[in-house]
Amino acid sequence: MAQQYDVDSPAAVVSAIVLGTLGVLSFIVQPALVQGFVTHLHVGEQEALNLAGIEMLGVAISSIAMALGSHRYDWRRVMAAALLVAALGNGLSAMASGGGTLWTARFIAGLGHGAIITLSFTFVGLTRKVDRNIALYLALLLTYGAIGVWRMPAFLDRFGLPALFWLFAALLLLGLATVRNVPRTHEARAEVPEGARDLPHGMVAIALAGVLAYNIAQGIAWAVLFLVGIAAGLGEQSVADALFASQVLAIGGALASVFLAGALARDRAIMIGILGGGACIGLLLAHPGIVLFAISVCGFNVLWNFVLPFILGTVGEFDTRGRMIGRAVAMQMLGLGTGPFLAGLLTNGSSYTLVELACIFFFLASFALLLLPMQAHRRLLAPQG
């Protein structure tokens, strides 16, 4: 019965994309949420970053668990359980008064969100048009993220943090209606992509390290962008407006990856996306005004969402069993979870120079690491003799 399941059917693809968006409900608005912790919980920047980090730690742990063991279980049951756990964590967050209770609640929410994200990306990885479907997924979540970041300050001022977490819980419960449209196991894969080859284990490890480094850079930057704007003397709504513009433009970046997938070589797209992202963060070293800040965050976000489908599409061809996407997403979540903690450790008062330099370092390291397995994969594709 599993073999008759069509992973490329519209219902399956739409369900995977919707579930993936539910998985990142809080992460995609993280800059505004971190500032919300500072403003409404009356905590310092480092504690706010750590609170975001503890959720991402839960995301990372469950993502790794899913990557290693999800093929042994019925994916529909796991997805349903993950939605319930994430809803529970957000509900507990709404009722928490702060301190350790809120930390525990956000960690529980992270465990659920991580499983949702990893399984959703794994579903997309089983489809024939991985790059396109990831880009469509990014377009949906960025539309939500743009509106969420833009309206977050006003929403929190009017309704408070508990209302936001209750809203997250309700949306996750509604997501249960889509579970019946997702595959049950890896056996649903219709065919091996034409370019898939089994790379040596060492090269696979290097590729995953590259994905990890890239997402550590993203996790650092995404967690502090709002704080960097505030530290530069910009108002909360001005920063929110710049991030809103970045999310809107990032939709174009994601869609550009769809239209350029056949015309632009993946290694060139990855070079542009990663090195360009590092250059955009470099602009923040100049203690920017609103114009330079907007240029920096817009360029960063556009390139992030332009290059991510290329990275995952490329890494997904490094094995022939369809498991690399899940492993890459686990590394993605681990990196995004590590980033806020590193940012908190490197934050020095209202100075984010060390944070920005660390972010640039991880961008450069990720490109160097990804380059090696991409070259090895290209050699395997080359005609023999």
Task: Give an overview in words.
With 385 residues, the protein is mostly helical. The protein has one domain (12-378): Up-down Bundle (Growth Hormone, Chain: A). The chain has helices spanning 10-23, 30-41, 45-69, 75-95, 99-125, 130-159, 161-174, 201-231, 236-260, 266-283, 290-315, 324-346, 353-381. The radius of gyration is 20 Å and the shape is globular. It starts with 9 loop residues before the first helix and ends with a helix. 56% of the residues are buried. The model has no long low-confidence stretch (mean pLDDT 88).
What is the compact description of this entry?
By secondary structure, the protein is an all-alpha fold.
Helix content bin: over 70%
Helix and strand element order? HHHHHHHHHHHHH
CATH superfamily descriptor: MFS general substrate transporter like domains
Rg to the nearest angstrom? Answer: 20 Å
Q: In whole angstroms, how far apart are the ends?
A: 42 Å
Overall 3D form? globular
What is the SS-derived class? Answer: mainly alpha
Tally of separate helices: 13
Beta-strand residue fraction = under 5%
The number of E-state strands comes to 0
The name CATH uses for the topology is Growth Hormone, Chain: A
Mean pLDDT: 88
CATH architectural name: Up-down Bundle
CATH class: Mainly Alpha
Mind sketching the topology for me?
Layout: H1 10-23, H2 30-41, H3 45-69, H4 75-95, H5 99-125, H6 130-159, H7 161-174, H8 201-231, H9 236-260, H10 266-283, H11 290-315, H12 324-346, H13 353-381
Helix pairs in contact: 1-5, 1-6, 2-3, 2-6, 2-8, 3-5, 3-12, 4-5, 4-7, 5-12, 6-9, 6-11, 8-11, 8-12, 8-13, 9-11, 10-11, 10-13
